[in-house]
Amino acid sequence: MPAAAPPPAPRACFVISVRTPPPAGPKTHAMRSHDTTHRDDAALLIDWENLKYSLASRGRRPNLTALREAVQELGRVVIARAYADWEHAAHRATRDQSALYAAGIEPVYVPSRFSSALDGPVKNSVDVKIAADCVEICHTRPSIQIFILVTGDADLLHLAHALQPYGKRVVVIGTSWSTSSRWVECVDEVIHYDVEVDPLEPQPLPAPPDGLPDLDELFRILVGFVEEQGKTGRVPLLSYLGYRLRRRLPGFHPSHYGFLKLKDLIREAERRNLVQIRTVGMEDWVSLPDAGPFSEVADEGEEFSTAAASDRDESVPRSEEEEAVPVTGPRFSEAYGTAIAPDDLEMALRDLVITADEIARDERYHYMSLGFLKQCLYRKAVQPAELLPPTIRPGSPALRGMRSSRHLQCLIEEAQRRNWLVEGTPTRRLDPRTGSMSAVQTWVLNRQSPQVIQILEEVEVGSRPPR
């Protein structure tokens, strides 16, 4: 009987894993994973004018805290830029650049293009600059897999088509009323700023906490963090509290407590009178309810009207202790360094009263310090009248002759001696760069002074009461 044939050798077996593709169409915020153990690198590119003016049409301002929280859900942001014509008065007056720097977003200057002197600016080159930067990032930073474009402008549709063949994920954030519907067909995800990033009326999600402390205990921990910062004289950023909660409670996410975003959860704590949220410098800060009101820094280094933060003139020191000079005619001339005619002195004091009144009427400023008044006077002294906004009266020739900090200090002290400037209510200020709080003495015009009343009536700016 012939020997049986040996059994065949086992074949190599390969197991093919089939990954179910995600559903077609743009994903929504609720579909994102909250697992942060591995996140792709992302680039955040903001068409600042598109976002700012879209929100302004509905009476709103950008909230950088909310935007940062939303993009952190998408990936690890390693590049963040905001593009605009930063020389435009609308941006300089609101100090947007300073707020963006404080939030870790780099302002990129893109000048406007002009068609003619009559037509004015037709369009800036932001779209072109964003597209050029995206192409450069795509080829020089291969680790960046996600491009987050904050814009509603359909002019960048071609950019999305150019990035996707390289395996890049493209996400667009824009307002629901201005974002082009074409984006939905061309990108991986569309997020509406007013619905998912910073909604006016956030609606909590019905999801119970799982393996985490209950909501009351969570709020107790949250208040403890705020109190801890308050003991060091600081006010924490809302995003900082999120960081502390994630470190204290691994796996923490607001959705575990029925809220879409961290801000929604802290708003609930605010509703229970446990904390209060203040928006300063386009970012959200959290303090205890009994902390009292506080304002953004408005002091020696702060800018006035169209002055940008990068344009500060260091000839006016940010903080200098100068010897007080009791300013009367001859003493003023001695401190000024040269003889000054009485008429010139009165004219410069008139400029001071007008400037202090303009500051009081400007809703952007909650108080006036002497250093801030000096900075504003210096701007009027050196800036050409045609560059000042229409609501700001240019300085007189007498004021334009005072171009040093010493001159302006003497002028302010003379106004104090005449009782035209009087002490206001002390307040506290918040430095958005550090979160530190400090006391500051405010000053106001003495609107009971006959001389002040006369000056304001002459320039027709005293017809309505100050804020």
On the 0 to 100 scale, the average pLDDT is 76
Count the DSSP helices. 17
**Count of DSSP strands:** 15
Q: Spans of 5+ residues with little confidence (pLDDT < 50)?
A: 10-31, 114-122, 297-331, 461-467
As for the CATH topology of the largest domain, it is: Rossmann fold
| The CATH top-level class label of the largest domain | Alpha Beta
How is the main sheet built? 6 strands, parallel
What does this structure look like?
The strands form 5 sheets. Strands 3-2-1-6-7-8 form a 6-stranded parallel sheet. A 3-stranded mixed sheet has the order 11-13-14, with no helix packed on it. Strands 4-5 form a two-stranded antiparallel ribbon. It starts with 40 loop residues before the first strand and ends in a 9-residue tail after the last helix. Helix 13 packs across helix 16 (405-417) and helix 14 crosses helix 16 (405-417). It is built from 17 helices and 15 strands. The protein has helices spanning 48-56, 64-72, 89-93, 96-102, 126-140, 157-163, 183-186, 193-197, 215-231, 238-248, 262-271, 329-336, 342-361, 370-382, 397-400, 405-417, 450-458, and strands spanning 41-47, 76-84, 106-109, 112-116, 120-124, 144-150, 169-174, 189-192, 276-280, 283-287, 295-296, 421-423, 427-430, 437-440, 443-445. The chain has 467 residues and is of the alpha/beta class. The chain folds into 3 domains: 39-197, 5'-nuclease (Rossmann fold, 3-Layer(aba) Sandwich), CATH 3.40.50; 215-288, Arc Repressor Mutant, subunit A (Orthogonal Bundle); 309-458, no CATH class. A hairpin with a 3-residue loop joins strand 4 and strand 5 (120-124).
